[in-house]
Design a protein that fits this description.
The complex is a heterodimer of chains A (57) and B (286). Chain A is mostly beta strands and 57 residues long. Chain A is built from no helices and five strands. In chain A, strands 2-1-5-4-3 form a five-stranded mixed beta sheet, with no helix packed on it. In chain A, a hairpin with a 6-residue loop joins β3 and β4. With 286 residues, chain B is α+β, with helices and mostly antiparallel strands. Chain B has three domains: 86 residues, Rossmann fold, CATH 3.40.50; 65 residues, ATP-grasp fold, A domain (Dna Ligase, domain 1, 2-Layer Sandwich); 96 residues, D-amino Acid Aminotransferase, Chain A, domain 1 (2-Layer Sandwich). The chains are: A mainly beta (57), B alpha+beta (286). Chains A and B meet through loops of A and α1 of B.
Chain lengths: 57, 286
C-alpha cells in the first residue's frame, strides 16, 4: 500500500497501486485529490482541478 | 495485445478498467494522459504510445472529440468513434440521430432567443419544460422552466454565460412518480447492465453524480430492444443509454459516450469495466 499526505489538511492517505492522475478523496477533509507523483510507496497529491464546463460522460 | 486508455484523470472508472485489463492474460493496458499528448494533425509525428486499440475516456468532451478525430483520421482504431462521440456529446445532435432512427424521444425544441424560448414553453410544451445545455453532463445547469417570468430570467442568465449556453435546448418535462430514469449499458451489440436512477429529495434530476440513487434494473425485452436501437443510431461502441418512462412507453433522452459505471457496479455487482475490456479484445481479434 502506498502512502501520501493530503496537501489540504495533512492527513495521511493510503492508496493501492496508485497511478498518475488518479483521483482520490481525502477521508479527513473530503477534498478531491489527484496523484501528482508516484515514487515507490510514496505518493504526492495535488488538489484536483475543479469541474470544467465540458466535463462529463 | 495492447490497449491504450486515453484519459485526463484516472477516476474510479478508469482504475477499474486498468484492474480489469491486468486480470486478463496477454493484455497490457497503457495509461495515456491527454495532458502529455502531442497529436500531429498534419502528419504522423505524435507522441502517442502504440496500441492495438485505443479507448477514449477524456472527462473533457472537447478534448475527447479531438483525440478521436485525430486517431481515426490516422486509421488508429478508437472506441468510441469520432462520429458517435460527436453526436453523443451534443444533446441536440443526439435527439436528431435518435429521431432519424425512429427511436422515441421526449419532444425537444431549439431556440436562439428568449422570445422563441418562451413560445416553446407556452405554445408547444403546455407551460413546463426542461432547459439543458447542449454540451454538459452530470445534470449541470439543467433547469426546469415552469412559468414565463422565471424562464425568462433563467434564459437571460444563460445569455450572460459562454456561447455554449446561448442555444436553448428545451425538452418536454416527463413528470410522474417516482422521479427516476433508467441508465442502460450497451457494449457492442448487447446490453450488459442497467439501473434505475432515483432523483434525490428536492430535485428532479436523477444523475448519480448529483446524489441520485442507483437501484438494479431488470432488463426486459422492451428495454433491451429500445436501448440497442438507440445505440445503433450513432454506431457501434460503448454507450450509456438514458431512458425515461412515459404512459406511452420508453423514450430515450441521452446517450453517453464515455459512460461512468461506478454506481452501477456497486448496485448490481455486474462487471461493466470487465465487459468493456472484453469487447475491446474481441474487436482487435475480429
Amino acid at each position: 500500500m502506498a502512502k501520501g499526505v493530503c496537501p489540504e489538511c495533512g492527513a495521511e492517505i493510503e492508496i493501492e497501486d496508485p497511478v498518475e492522475k488518479e483521483i482520490v478523496e481525502c477521508e479527513e477533509c473530503g477534498v478531491e485529490l489527484e496523484v501528482s507523483k508516484v515514487d515507490g510507496d510514496e505518493v504526492e497529491f495535488e488538489v484536483a482541478e475543479s469541474e470544467g464546463e465540458d466535463w462529463g460522460e | 495485445m495492447k490497449i491504450g486508455l486515453i484519459c485526463d484523470r484516472v477516476s474510479w472508472n478508469e482504475k477499474a478498467l486498468i484492474n480489469a485489463a491486468n486480470k486478463r492474460r496477454g493484455v497490457e493496458i497503457i495509461e495515456i494522459l491527454s495532458d502529455d499528448l502531442i497529436l500531429d494533425a498534419s502528419g504522423n509525428d505524435h507522441n502517442l504510445p502504440e496500441a492495438d486499440i485505443y479507448l477514449q475516456r477524456c472527462i473533457s468532451a472537447i478534448r475527447g472529440l479531438y483525440v478521436a478525430a485525430v486517431l481515426e483520421s490516422k486509421n488508429l482504431p478508437v472506441v468510441n468513434t469520432y462520429e458517435a462521440s460527436r453526436i453523443c456529446a451534443d444533446k441536440t445532435l443526439t435527439i436528431l440521430a435518435l429521431s432519424k432512427a425512429n427511436v422515441p424521444t421526449p419532444k425537444t425544441y431549439l431556440a436562439f432567443t428568449i422570445g422563441s424560448g418562451l413560445k416553446i414553453l407556452t405554445e408547444k410544451l403546455n407551460g413546463i419544460g426542461v432547459l439543458k445545455p447542449n454540451i454538459g453532463s452530470w445534470g449541470r445547469l439543467i433547469a426546469i422552466l415552469k412559468d414565463p417570468l422565471s424562464a425568462k430570467a433563467i434564459m437571460e442568465d444563460r445569455l450572460m454565460m459562454g456561447v455554449l449556453y446561448h442555444t436553448f435546448h428545451i425538452q418536454e418535462y416527463i413528470g410522474g412518480e417516482p422521479k427516476r430514469d433508467l441508465r442502460v449499458y450497451v457494449i457492442g451489440d448487447r446490453v450488459v447492465a442497467g439501473i434505475y436512477r432515483y432523483a434525490p429529495p428536492g430535485d428532479f434530476r436523477t444523475n448519480t453524480a448529483g446524489g441520485g440513487k442507483a437501484v438494479p434494473l431488470a432488463i426486459t425485452p422492451e428495454i433491451e430492444e429500445i436501448s440497442l436501437r438507440a445505440a445503433k443510431a450513432v454506431g457501434e461502441g460503448v454507450f450509456g443509454v438514458d431512458l425515461m418512462e412515459t404512459p406511452n412507453g420508453y423514450v430515450v433522452h441521452e446517450l453517453n459516450h464515455t459512460t461512468e459505471y461506478r454506481n452501477t457496479v456497486a448496485a448490481t455487482g455486474i462487471d461493466v469495466p470487465g465487459a468493456i475490456i472484453d469487447y475491446l479484445i474481441e474487436k482487435v481479434k475480429r
